């Protein structure tokens, strides 16, 4: 691979040959149209056409994954077999330059609509370093987040404000007070709680930071709080500034609500880590032969400047398998060009008992482990909930089973009884 | 429906009852988490919980549409039936206020990941008018675009610069010169041609507008040219200004590359129509039980401020059926709150012969009909290609078959021979 190309790998399914489908994809996404047109010279094609790098045949499928495919004329629809394979295309870098929005139009644009395929999923990308030089990537990442929270040698433990939506400023203040004294490292707003009229972000920031600072004065530990600043583009900077001026040290955005372009815009201005929530992502990835893989998504998020990215956790309440979660964590922790890794955020149905399996399968402590109900609904309250999470990780890191560790750790024992 | 709620309708598929799945969706997207937490009071639920408005049972499915569903414990996986239905939920408007980014997190967020469903697609939304008051919607729409192009009582005829990518400024200049003298109403950049290093937008704008103005001086007709200004957020305004300062009268963006938030940001500043290209949209909609319908998408685009939106055309080269294209055109032409309709853009594999079926099925002339190859690859050249498109529409509007009309219209006859 040269510095003058972008490579994109797709999982495709087609009633045609893989070669033919790949040729159509390369044409559609670069110099071709449905008929040859004047000006489509050999020189132009040599300079600007996308090219097939490799094709890897996989097992074929008896049924099509997606509707709207066209059957080859020779066989007819009754007789169609659906070839599956991995296709890597090379796009000339100078077709778009280091622009994420224009890159997307090329590597993930109209090709999803081609009727030559009955399935197409973008599963990996390789980009020239010029993209990272332009966008700059995570400003804080794992190391910066550890520095700001002063947590080392174990995962960060965090929670989500619950109920997700509806707490008044007074109720929120009380909850944050308890959390800020609980020994927790990190708190975040729910993605459903942006800037609602009944509890505007501005008031929330003042109340929350007041509680956090007062607790920090007492305990010496300043909790990181990710304020959900999701909003229109011109609100992003203003909302960020409200947080920073109040002494806050993290902002959260719904990445897919503001777009990668919105994240990149915020990144240029940001003085604190950007906590990336991936809601809406299921629509882009749940079908295995459509959309894109998390491997690609986290690379794009990383380039745009996200510091923390949600990956779900093991045994989550969503559709995602443990194997997929583990792969996602590995993706976030794999450098693209150097020190540009993301802090993976485990969440969804998490509690103390998930620590052991997480550590065994992920083999890392570079995690932000969020438990909402798993902390808030602990039978002995929030501080016990946080203690149970810490104990779960202590057990995991010591290689002791939680059943064994719970014998001398009451909070863990209670968590096992309630959530186990 | 009150002014204090947002309604969202989903097509869902579930191994559980529709009622149960709908309850889980409503909980996940408002006040619930996986266990009850302190603070989730009756008062809070009454004020902030999403509620089920209606459930319409449809025919059940023998197989699940998506992986990762959880089977009800009573039946076990072998015995599962997949209920399908349309579910309408009501979300309290004050949970997010008139904010598109925060609306999306609520109505189209984590619910795609729920394992209680084996299929979920957002198929319609109804929003309080406060959203339109905030975002303002299409600034030009159909009427404004007709005014700027001086085209009435017939569809606008347009083309896409082809080859999509790779023309030098000199080659582009020559092509635009010919197009600007051809009688065409509208030209657009390809979505693959943004701001590439070898032909930067700035130079392209100067060259193109020079040709267009000079042609207009001669012919009295100033072609509308949609410059692809897709780029990072802080480039959008600058790129827009480059176009307007050069006398340009339209800008194009890849909506999904800059996000709805990016479009709304541009809309606040825009002095010319925003031509919305929907590349990447296939990933969001091609599977019939995932993502969202075009009905929803065009409402969101419209709110954000798009003036023209691509719908594909009949007999297109993509996966989309004619029925779906016709529905999309109707969606664009259906007012939400008043004069807020979008100009539908028919494209993909279009030529003169498609006019008749388009008019018969769509029953409107409020269309922007784009033909790339269908104009550029006409045997007698570009001017003949444009004439053939006009003749195709003349025949359609007169109720004459194109075969009949072609007897006295040479350009149409040649088009039929080449593309028919």
Report on this structure:
Chain A is of the alpha/beta class and 420 residues long. Chain A has 2 domains: 5-134, 2-Layer Sandwich (Alpha-Beta Plaits); 141-419, TIM Barrel (Alpha-Beta Barrel), CATH 3.20.20.110. Chain A has 17 helices and 12 strands. Chain A has helices at 18-28, 42-48, 100-107, 130-135, 141-149, 169-180, 201-219, 233-245, 255-269, 281-285, 294-304, 322-333, 355-362, 373-376, 382-398, 402-406, 410-419, and strands at 5-14, 51-61, 82-92, 119-126, 156-160, 186-188, 224-228, 251-254, 274-277, 308-310, 343-346, 368-370. In chain A, the strands form 2 sheets. Chain A has an 8-stranded parallel β-barrel with strand order 5-6-7-8-9-10-11-12, surrounded by 5 helices. In chain A, strands 2-3-1-4 form a 4-stranded antiparallel beta sheet. In chain A, strand 7, helix 8 and strand 8 (251-254) form a beta-alpha-beta unit. In chain A, helix 13 packs parallel to helix 15 (382-398). The radius of gyration of chain A is 24 Å and the shape is globular. The mean pLDDT of chain A is 95. The interface between A and B is large, with 97 and 96 residues. Chains A, B: Residues 141-419 form the Ribulose bisphosphate carboxylase large subunit C-terminal domain. Chains A, B: Its cofactor is Mg(2+). Chains A, B: Pfam families: RuBisCO_large, RuBisCO_large_N. Chains A, B: One of its GO terms (molecular function) is ribulose-bisphosphate carboxylase activity. Chains A, B: This is Ribulose-bisphosphate carboxylase.
């Amino acid at each position: 691979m040269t510095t003058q190309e972008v490579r994109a790998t797709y999982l495709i399914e087609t009633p045609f040959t893989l070669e033919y489908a790949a040729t159509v994809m390369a044409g559609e996404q670069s110099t071709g149209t449905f008929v040859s047109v004047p000006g489509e010279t050999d020189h132009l094609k040599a300079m600007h056409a996308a090219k097939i790098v490799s094709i890897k045949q996989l097992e074929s499928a008896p049924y099509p994954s997606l509707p709207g495919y066209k059957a080859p004329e020779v066989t007819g629809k009754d007789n169609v077999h659906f070839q599956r394979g991995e296709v890597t295309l090379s796009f000339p870098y100078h077709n778009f330059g280091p622009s994420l929005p224009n890159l997307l139009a090329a590597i993930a644009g109209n090709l999803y609509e081609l009727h030559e395929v009955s399935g197409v999923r973008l599963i990996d990308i390789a980009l020239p370093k010029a993209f990272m030089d332009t966008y700059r990537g995570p400003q804080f990442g794992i190391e910066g987040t550890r520095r700001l929270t002063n947590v080392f040698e174990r995962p960060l433990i965090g929670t989500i404000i619950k109920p997700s939506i509806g707490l008044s400023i007074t109720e929120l203040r009380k909850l944050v007070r308890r959390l800020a004294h609980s020994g927790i490292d990190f708190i975040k707003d729910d993605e459903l709680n942006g800037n609602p009229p009944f509890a505007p972000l501005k008031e929330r920031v003042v109340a929350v930071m007041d509680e956090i600072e007062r607790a920090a004065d007492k305990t010496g530990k300043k909790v990181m709080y990710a304020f959900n600043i999701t909003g229109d583009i011109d609100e992003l900077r203003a909302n960020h500034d409200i947080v920073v001026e109040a002494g806050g040290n993290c902002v959260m955005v719904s990445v897919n609500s503001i777009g990668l372009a919105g994240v990149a815009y915020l990144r240029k201005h940001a003085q604190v880590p950007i906590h990336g929530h991936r809601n809406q992502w299921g629509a882009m990835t749940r079908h295995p032969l459509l959309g894109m893989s998390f491997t690609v998504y986290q690379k794009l998020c990383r380039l745009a400047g996200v510091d923390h990215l949600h990956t779900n956790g093991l045994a989550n309440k969503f559709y995602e398998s443990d194997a997929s979660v583990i792969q996602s964590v590995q993706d976030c922790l794999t450098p693209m060009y150097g020190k540009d890794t993301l802090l993976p955020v485990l969440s969804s149905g998490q509690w103390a008992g998930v620590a052991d399996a997480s550590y065994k399968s992920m083999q890392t402590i570079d995690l932000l482990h969020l438990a909402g109900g798993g902390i808030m609904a602990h039978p002995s309250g929030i501080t016990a909930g946080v203690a149970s999470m810490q104990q779960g990780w202590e057990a995991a890191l010591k290689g002791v089973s939680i059943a064994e560790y719970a014998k001398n750790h009451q909070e863990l024992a209670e968590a096992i009884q309630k959530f186990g």
